[in-house]
Each structure stands twice: as C-alpha cells, then as structure tokens.
Design goal:
transmembrane, flat, MetI-like fold, single chain, mainly alpha
C-alpha cells in the first residue's frame, strides 16, 4: 500500500516537473518575440541609450506610422493574402495529385517518376534559365501568377505526402474499388479526408513559403500594385537605410531616422497573421508530425 502511495507521489512530482520545464521553455521561446514587440513600440534613441527592453521606456508608434502611412502596404497585404490562400490551395491539389499516384504499387514506372522528381531536389537549372523561361517563353512578367505557378510543387512536400499515403491501409482503397470507385474518387473522398493532419502540416509549409515571397517579385514584378508585403517592406527599409546614410553624410546629427525600430515593426507586421494562424492548425500540425514519425 505504501509502495503505491510513493509511486503516485513520484508520478505527480514528475508531472509537475514536466509542466514546469515546458512552461520555462515556452517563456524562453516567447521572450524574443516580446522583446521585438516592445522594442518596436519605442523610439530609436531609447534603444540606443538603454538597449532592448521588455517594457519600453519611451512609448512611440513612430516606426508603425512610417510603415503604415504608405497606402500601398494595404494593397501589398491583399496581394500576399491572395497568393498565400490561392497558392496553398493549388499547391496542395498539385502535390496530392502527384503524391497519391506515386504511392500506388500498381502505377507503372512510379520509381522512375519519383527519381525524376527527386533529381530536381539535387540539381537546378539556375537563375538565368528560370528567368529566361518565365519572362521570354511564359510571358508572366508583371503578373501575380508569377508568384504562384512556379511554386506549385515542392518535391520535399510531395514525398512527405506520398509517404503518408503509403502508410494508409490499402484495404480501404481496395474495398472502395470493389464498390465501383475510381482512383479520383478514392483520392478525394477517402485518402484526403484521412490525411488531414499531414495535409495541415504540408499546407502550413506551403503557406509560409508563399507568405514570405519577395525574391520573385524583385525579379519579375515592376507594377507597385502587385508588390507582395515582404518585398514592399524590404523597399521601405532600404529607403530608410538610404535616408539615414544620407543624413550622416551631410552631418545632420539632430535628425535620426528610425531604421532599427522600423525593422522591428516590420517584423511584427509581417509575422503577425502567421502567428494568429498557428493556434488553429496546431493540433493538426502536431498530429501530422507524430503520425509521420510513427509510421515513417
């Protein structure tokens, strides 16, 4: 009897220690974000004098005013939301449409096709060939689709989905075929609903990639109405850096452009929507990773 009581107390103590460790780890992870948020709400001179603080000594919205006074930033938000939503949906359709057939043993030459996809992970045609293809032959310059179509298939994400489809019991598909279902019906009505945890994880990977696009916009977009958020903020920060260097060159010591606080504010503006998205996908994301780890 005493042994059982000791074991129960030990288990409770271990549980308390685990929760305490997780809480401390969560606070450590949260500390940089809170510091960035706090430092973005202060003045440039305050950071230079006191460094980064958890609580701003001199509250100021100057950095956010500099970012948000430009009306084009709201258009850029719309462009980024559009390419993230539409791009993620299309990318998941293309990825599943390729991953599911490659998971079937009955598909002829599936290993050869998989190797062709894997080959693109090791070797790339290069920036020059991609630029010539997109601008000269596809003619997608100054088109919002240039930010979506070239990124519809990521080989790594495709192999993740293929391995997940392979881990599903084949008897489900076989029983559906006996009832007269074709492969398209099986994929959309059976496999995809079962694979929601894996799709949430892969979809989050795609969403992050589309949300953070800026390099393609720098190469192919000249119309400011089509600038995604990340690229527009990069241009704003470059302008702030240029203004600061110009002020230093002409010895305007009393004039200080908020370049550091602007960078911190830009970080909050760009990652804010993604942070709010995580809680809704967390359970699916964690479950997808755990299932993939267990089933390989």
């Amino acid at each position: 009897m005493n042994l059982e009581i000791k074991e129960g107390a030990g288990d409770r103590l271990l549980l308390i220690l685990m929760y305490a460790s997780i809480a401390v780890f969560a606070l450590i992870c949260l500390f940089p974000f809170v510091t960035v948020l706090s430092s973005s709400l202060t003045t440039e001179t305050s950071i230079q004098a006191y460094g980064f603080q958890l609580f701003p000594k001199a509250f100021s919205l100057e950095a956010y005013q500099l970012l948000l006074k430009n009306d084009t930033i709201y258009k850029s938000y719309g462009v980024t939301i559009f390419i993230t939503v539409v791009g993620t949906i299309l990318a998941m359709l293309v990825t599943c449409a390729m991953a599911y057939p490659l998971s079937l043993r009955s598909l002829k030459y599936r290993n050869h096709i998989a190797f062709y996809v894997f080959f693109t992970m090791l070797f790339h045609g290069g920036l020059v060939s991609s630029y010539i293809l997109i601008t000269k032959y596809l003619g997608m310059t100054d088109s919002i689709w240039v930010l979506i179509l070239p990124s519809l298939l990521n080989p790594f994400n495709m192999f993740l989905m293929r391995n997940f489809f392979k881990s599903i019991d084949e008897s489900l598909a076989e029983s559906a075929k006996m009832d007269g279902a074709n492969e398209i019906y099986i994929m959309f009505r059976i496999m995809i609903p079962i694979s929601l945890p894996a799709m949430a994880a892969v979809g989050l990977f795609y969403a992050l990639a589309f949300w953070n696009k800026w390099f393609e916009a720098m190469l192919y977009i000249r119309n400011e109405d089509l600038f995604p958020l990340q690229y527009l903020i990069k241009r704003i920060l470059d302008s702030a850096d240029f203004s600061r260097e110009l002020a230093q060159n002409i010895n305007l010591t009393e004039y200080t452009t908020p370049t550091l606080t602007t960078r911190l504010a830009a970080t909050i503006v760009t990652i804010g929507p993604i942070i709010f998205l995580y809680p809704f996908l967390q359970k699916y994301f964690v479950k997808g990773l755990l299932i993939g780890a267990v089933k390989g």
